[in-house]
Amino acid sequence: MPPKQCLGRHPNLGARFVDQRLGEPLQIILKRPVLPWRYIDLADENTNAEDRIERACAAERSATYDVAHESPLRAMLVRIAPEKYRFVLLMHHVVCDGWSGHILLREIFAGYDSQPLPTPVPYRYFLDWLAGRDREAAHAAWRRVLAGFEAPTLVGPPQRLGVGARSVKSFRLPEETTSALDELARSRHTTLNIVLQGAFAQLLIWLTGHQ
Fold first, then answer.
1. Ranges of H-type helices in the chain
2. Best-predicted range by mean pLDDT (17-31, 156-170, 189-203)
3. Is the dihedral of CA 181, 186, 192, 193 positive or negative?
4. Taking CA atoms, which of 17, 165, 199, 205 is between 20 and 30 Å from 5?
5. Torsion angle (degrees, nearest 10) of CA 170, 171, 176, 178
């Protein structure tokens, strides 16, 4: 199966993290990690498949990850019709972020289409790069960026002391706008999430007059 194939290509996705008590947590890379796989067949049941899927996904999301003994990567396949399935992949942020998640999904789809995949970069290369970083230079760079920062930015009228009302609103953007945002993220080698956070930061600067 392509998801299991990806775990074989990137065994760090199935790593365990053990508390060393007196030191830093220890990451353990298994030689042959196993992907927890759950299969649910709803094709022949007279129930609302979408409700069952939503409940199953909610249960998976709320389940506690024991990163010392369980895989931080899990998969669920739901059969909702004779030739229709829903695939759910759950990834703990300790092993996979948003950018890496897109790469992983591309590999999974390529596997289903029997497309050749490049040789994966060994995880040890990343560890070597991580160990070789100049921490003092990094600390100095962030000290320069945060120089003069004394307090968080508060947005709202000064006379309001209580908590404001909370609500959720949805808006549909034109396809041209979303395409332009995606292209901007790709051209800057970053994610759409980072682009939107940057836009929100610019909005805060405009509202508060602070950098």
1. 2-9, 49-62, 98-112, 123-131, 135-145, 175-187, 192-208
2. 189-203
3. negative
4. 17
5. -20
Residue ranges of domains in the chain: 2-122, 172-211
Q: Mean pLDDT, to the nearest integer, of 167-194?
A: 91
As a CATH number, domain 2-122 is 3.30.559.10
The whole-angstrom distance between residue 166's C-alpha and the CA centroid of its chain comes to 26
Beta bridge partners of 172: none
DSSP 8-state symbol, 87? E
The answer to whether the Cα torsion of 88, 92, 95, 98 is positive or negative is positive
Token pair in block for residue 107 = 């590999």
Read off the amino acid at residue 204.
L
Q: Are 90 and 74 in contact (CB under 8 A)?
A: yes
Band (166; pLDDT cuts 50, 70, 90)? confident
Burial class (CB in 10 A: 0-12, 13-18, 19+), 13: buried
| Amino acid identity at 4 | K
User: 86's torsion region: left (phi>0), alpha (psi -120 to 50) or beta?
Assistant: beta
* Residue pLDDT, tens place only, 88-139: 888 888 998 877 888 888 899 898 888 988 899 999 999 999 999 999 999 9
pTM: 0.67
